[in-house]
Amino acid sequence: MITESPRGGFADALRQWRTRRRVSQLELAVRAGTTQRHVSFIESGRSTPGRSMIIRLAESLEVPIRERNELLLDAGFAPAYPHSDLDDPQLAPIRAALDRILYGHLPYPAVIVDRYGDLVSANAGFQVITRGVDPHLLAPPVSVPRVLLHPHGLAPRIVNLDEWAWHIIDRVQAESLRNPSDRLRLLADELVDLAPPRPRQLAPHHLGFAVPLHLRTSDPDNRELRLITTLTHFGTATDVTIAELRLEAFLPADETTSAALTELVTW
């Protein structure tokens, strides 16, 4: 027998996520191992899904696990994913692994940030490139995008600020659209106000696969570092805190940059 529940809550939230991901009811049904009719009935409030079905639908839509908990709560179920403090003793192995990754990346800069771009941890390489940044920008919570683009941060030393600023802004805006957050939206708006006008096209010397960061050092030599970045996250994390961590590593784009960082960074 089909039971009908009021519209709103989980039904509307599921439809919003499916629309945001641009997935049809049929495609979602195939991914989740159910039928289009069942998905339609769930979204119309004519059918109430069980806990396991909600999790399957959320996984099929790549909903972040923080928001999966919210979907479960909307449907009247308890959250499925813990949300631990990073200082929790149970997460000690994770913290140790992250510390090893940061240290292993030396002499090149690397940071660990949360979903909002706030700094969780950094290695000595990042501390080197942020020398001279206004102390108030480095007071917790430290917003790495803000440090990069603020006029009292690294912006005055970024040679290709017009390119790099919009590379950062586009990434924040894309994340805000993919996983809506008022905090990310406000950060994106702030960064737009800090950035120079968007260039009509990338400079012809860019690497093709990434926008390089051209950053002058704060030492008297004022050397130019050419860096590219990579982003890494825990793909199978089942704890909200761990799932939202991101490792951003800065890699030298040439041997001159590699040699300069090797000289500047104290291990």
Describe what you observe in this structure.
- The chain starts with 9 loop residues before the first helix and ends with a helix.
- Strand 1 (110-113) and strand 2 form a beta hairpin.
- It contains twelve helices and five strands.
- Strands 2-1-5-4-3 form a five-stranded antiparallel sheet.
- The chain has 267 residues and is an alpha+beta fold.
- The chain has helices at residues 10-20, 25-32, 36-44, 51-60, 65-74, 92-104, 124-129, 144-149, 161-178, 182-194, 240-243, 255-264; strands spanning 110-113, 119-122, 213-216, 224-233, 246-252.
- The protein folds into two domains: 10-74, lambda repressor-like DNA-binding domains (434 Repressor (Amino-terminal Domain), Orthogonal Bundle), CATH 1.10.260.40; 89-264, 2-Layer Sandwich (Beta-Lactamase).
- Helix content is 44%, strand content 11%.
Task: Please provide a brief summary of the model.
With 267 residues, this protein is an alpha+beta fold.
Which regions have little confidence, pLDDT < 50, spanning 5+ residues? 1-7
H and E string: HHHHHHEEHHHHEEHEH
Structural class: alpha+beta
Task: Give the overall pLDDT as a whole number.
Answer: 91
Number of strands: 5
Largest sheet: 5 strands, antiparallel
Q: What is the strand arrangement across the widest sheet?
A: 2-1-5-4-3
InterPro entries: Cro/C1-type_HTH, Lambda_DNA-bd_dom_sf, MLTR_LBD
Pfam families: HTH_3, MLTR_LBD
Organism: Catellatospora bangladeshensis
Protein name: XRE family transcriptional regulator
